Amino acid sequence: MFKKKKKNIWQKLKYKKPEGFFVLAPMADVTDNPFRKIINQIGKPDLFYTEFGATDGLASEKGYKRIKTQIFNFEKNQKPIIAQIFGGKPENYKEVAKKVANMGFDGIDLNTGCPQKNILKQKSGSELIKEENWDLVRQIIQNIKKGIKESKNQIPFSLKTRIGFNQYNKEWIKFLLEQKLDALIIHLRTKKEMSKVQAHWELAKELTELKNKISPNTVLIFNGDIKSKKEGFQKLKENGADGIMIGRGIFENPTLFRDQDFSKKSVQEKTKIMLKHAKYFEKEFGKTFKNKILFGGRIKPFALMKKFFKIYINGFDGAKEFREHLMKANSLKEVEQVVKNHLKKL
Fold first, then answer.
1. How far apart are the C-alpha atoms of 64 and 178, rounded to whole Å?
2. 230-281: per-residue pLDDT in tens?
3. How far apart are CA 339 and CA 249, in angstroms?
4. What pLDDT score was predicted for residue 346?
5. Cα separation of 192 and 156, whole Å?
6. Domains (ranges, CATH) in the chain?
């Protein structure tokens, strides 16, 4: 008798959540381990993503150790979790995919959507959307698949992209679907549009129909402007896709995956969560190393924690002043003192 093939994580989500599932989008210097630990506690998504890791770095022994501990570090209770990679050198992808597959992730994702200039210069991110680079994309995809095949863990391969570079390019999506990916995540904006315009949800149904025609087994996820699960379910009902990826919406409501309104929490509750996040950040990235000038010997500067303050300190009287004082803090100790001073006033 033939052994029944196990479902991969994308297939499991599609099967277990026929009405739709929700994924937290990968965001550089946002979806790191400390942030995922917090989201895991206050409202876990159906699937986590890491920040993206550079294949050029992962290809070297030194870079591999750094990325494994700084970017691809995760807790077991965060599973299922996908590792996202990027890079413009196809020769690195096979070995990198093999390494990443053996780290215990539930899947590997290729970033072809990042619009940042420093990423584009590496012939990576959304630079790969240009038709002149499609042969390169095909080669990268083949190498990733080969690497996974040679690994101990036969995990699925997905790809995150945009609807085009300067304008909507249906042929680009068609090309990707022809690669028979396990999952395709489409941000419904072009590279040129960044996040400056409304996501093009009017294209979602057309893209779902295209997927069903070319690669019906590919799991399809859309990304762009969704602020709640209710809104996400409605969109999926309209277009027939399988899942929703949410990025910036988590900043407005970090408990959205639990269908809760974070703004209704008390100041004390919000502050407690923020302090916990800051402590996680400090524990993970505040380690000091001798002979390292970068970030004063730290793994990440404390300044990167400051972008999160607005998530927690928002929607109550005195929040603006509270945040202004927090933004001047340069260490966990200083944050704790600011919190102590402001909570006295309540």
1. 31
2. 999 999 999 999 999 999 999 999 999 999 999 999 999 999 999 999 999 9
3. 25
4. 72
5. 30
6. 9-252 (3.20.20.70), 265-344 (no CATH)
The two tokens of residue 194 are 């960044």
Residue 346 or residue 43, greater confidence? 43
Which residue of the set 38, 100, 114, 274 is catalytic? 114
Q: Using DSSP, state whether 30 is helix, strand or coil.
A: coil
Query: Smallest Cα–Cα separation from 174: which of 191, 192, 161, 157?
Result: 161
Query: Using one digit for the tens of pLDDT, what is the confidence trace for 135-188?
Result: 999 999 999 999 999 999 999 999 999 999 999 999 999 999 999 999 999 999
In the 8-state DSSP scheme, what is residue 6? Answer: P
Half-sphere exposure (CA, 13 Å, Cβ side) for 197? 11
- pLDDT for the residue 291: 45
Active site residue 336: no
Distance CA 32, CA 18 (A): 29
Respond yes or no on whether the N-terminal peptide bond of residue 80 is cis (omega within 30° of 0).
Answer: yes
CA 300/CA 256 separation, integer angstroms: 27
**Roughly how many angstroms between the first and final C-alpha of the chain, as a whole number?**
69
